[in-house]
Amino acid sequence: MKIMHMALAAGLLLSPLRAAAAEPAPVASRPIEIGTSYSLPSAVLGDTREVNVWLPTGYAASHDRYPVVYLLDGALDQDFQHIAGLANLASLSWTYGPMIVVGVQTRNRRAELTSRPTDPRYLSAFPESGGADRFRRFLRQEVIPFVEARFRTGERRAIMGESLAGLFVVDTLLNDPALFADYVAISPSLWWDDRRPLAHLDRTARVKGLAKARLYLAVGDEGGTMQDGIDRLRTFLESQPADRVTLRYDDFSKSASHATVYHHAAEDALRWLYPAPPYEGGGTPWFMIEGAQPPPPSSPPPSSPPPPSPTTPAG
């Protein structure tokens, strides 16, 4: 009994210490914010979509206009914060210029980002598909006017997407090429409909009216019908006049999978599309040169002119 009482007393003595340990002292904090999220009612889609906007560093203090990257799958729980973070890298690395990022939410990607297939196998496997034209109208009639009425947008606008969103990017280039100036398709799902949209590009593509568009195309290690579709697209575009479409192709098949290709490819695309002037940081610092010495400290300039020398006549 005596031992029990001693244990109880010890517990009572220790309990305030435990309470103090469980309640750390308050520390000043604030939420980290990246961009602004809008709820955009859509008559085209018949619902409300999340549209997220990231503005480049210095936007509020400038009068500049900026290129806009419209990001598919751009909700907060999709790819917006990832690509906005890459855009923010422009203010840290000086290797590409500032831009506005607009993330556009998708909900049913198979329905909204695909054209209607003709192959019975795909119709059976993806019965909800075929809404790409309607989603494009949503971008053209509602999202782009919303952005251009509120922000200082420049002449060039881009569209970026990966996988099914990359398919939508290519589909837009081939069927509504004037909607954007720059296209970024990363591991696009060009296996869609057994590659039928790519079978007769010389007759079906509308790129004849296209001028000075740029397409960044990248692929991971997917292979198979996806790689074949990408190869068909490259062959077609490379046969076009040089002033129609400028193609940049990056092959990540030896270093990235479908799940990992997006980050490196998106960064490469932004560097290619929006390069910044070379950063002039001066010569190589002494500590990067074997055996070099730091330069002698420079003397601060005098605060006032020195008095005349006694041996030199004043004036």
Strand content: 15-25%
- Mean pLDDT over the full residue set: 88
What general form does the structure show? Answer: globular
Main sheet attributes: strand count, strand direction, barrel closure: 8 strands, mixed
What is the rounded distance between the termini? Answer: 105 Å
Tally of helical runs: 10
Number-wise, the strands total 8
The value of Rg in angstroms is: 29 Å
Output the structural class. alpha/beta
Question: Residue ranges: pLDDT <50 for 5 or more in a row?
Answer: 307-315
Portion of residues in helices? 25-40%
Strand order of the largest sheet: 1-2-4-3-5-6-7-8
List the secondary-structure elements in sequence, H or E: HEEEHHEHHHEHEHEHEH
Task: Write up this protein.
- Helix content is 34%, strand content 18%.
- It is built from 10 helices and 8 strands.
SSE topology:
Blueprint: H1 2-22, E1 36-42, E2 47-54, E3 66-72, H2 80-88, H3 90-93, E4 100-104, H4 109-112, H5 120-125, H6 132-150, E5 153-162, H7 164-175, E6 182-186, H8 201-204, E7 213-219, H9 224-238, E8 245-251, H10 261-273
Parallel strand pairs: 3-4, 3-5, 5-6, 6-7, 7-8
Antiparallel strand pairs: 1-2, 2-4
